[in-house]
Specification:
CATH architecture of the largest domain: 2-Layer Sandwich
Number of helices: 9
Number of domains: 2
Strand order of the largest sheet: 2-3-1-4
CATH superfamily of the largest domain: Ferrodoxin-fold anticodon-binding domain
Length: about 250
């Protein structure tokens, strides 16, 4: 399933509000410094993760393996952003051997010319820390099989969801700027992402001075609220309260 930039940004904000940044594959600082400069086709690496001893990895699954890759990236190559880790399970048997595990596609978004060097560090660490599984490079993997076609996120310039101004807007939101919140709210509302739109409009209305922009934010908040199903409104309010606590105060 393809994911639009607006859907992703709503997810991004929702996860941050409800679970915290630890659940995301990047930190707030990384997002504040990020700008898309690469094509996704030139930023991915394919690995094979073969389970060598299931008894030693009884709790290994896609979520735990993805978390291990993300956590290792943070420690070993903190200056390279890895927004997406796509895992594909495989189960292959022949007359000689049985191989079970995952193909792991690592989609980097910064310093893509260093992606092989970065992945080598990640592989060395995971092979040392996680017993019962063995990672290795699969070189020359075609881009068509990387899952990139199904990852329509604005981290890469060759994605349909990418727009040159989306990251300056996101930077403004994370800095607590009401004009950026208003702009993101209007984009979300246009895509019928009303949960995220409500929160952005509400935050903008609280921070903007009296005037036309505040009136737009207030009207947008009320329209988005009317579109949220009644059984989801408590969650929308809780997420808004969390955003109020974690977004920095705006200083005109």
């Amino acid at each position: 399933m393809k994911v639009s930039a607006r859907c992703y940004l709503t997810f991004f904000l929702s996860v941050w509000a409800n679970l915290g940044l630890a659940e995301l594959p990047f930190t707030q600082r990384e997002i504040l410094e990020f700008d898309a400069r690469y094509r996704q086709a030139e930023c991915f690496v394919k690995l094979e993760a073969v389970i060598t001893d299931r008894a030693r990895t009884p709790d290994l699954n896609e979520r735990s393996l993805r978390s291990a890759i993300i956590d290792t990236r943070r420690r070993e190559v903190p200056d390279i952003l890895l927004p997406s880790v796509n895992l594909v399970p495989f189960d292959w048997e022949s007359a000689i051997e049985v191989r079970r595990g995952y193909f792991a596609y690592l989609h980097y978004a910064t310093a893509c010319e260093r992606r092989f060097e970065a992945t080598e560090k990640i592989v060395r660490t995971i092979n040392r820390l996680i017993k019962g599984i063995s990672f290795r490079f699969l070189h020359d993997a075609p881009a068509a099989e990387s899952g990139a076609a199904d990852i329509d996120l604005p981290f890469w310039t060759d994605k349909p969801s990418y727009e040159p101004d989306i990251w300056p807007i996101m930077h403004g939101v994370w800095k607590g700027q009401p004009a950026a919140m208003l702009a993101l709210g209007e984009r979300m509302a246009a895509e019928k992402e009303y949960m995220g739109a409500f929160r952005m409009f509400a935050l903008a209305a609280e921070r903007l001075p009296d005037g036309p922009d505040r009136s737009r934010a207030t009207a947008g908040r009320d329209r988005a609220w009317a579109e949220i199903p009644p059984d989801r409104r408590d969650r929308a309010i809780a997420a808004l309260d969390q955003n109020r606590k974690e977004l920095p105060p705006h200083r005109p």
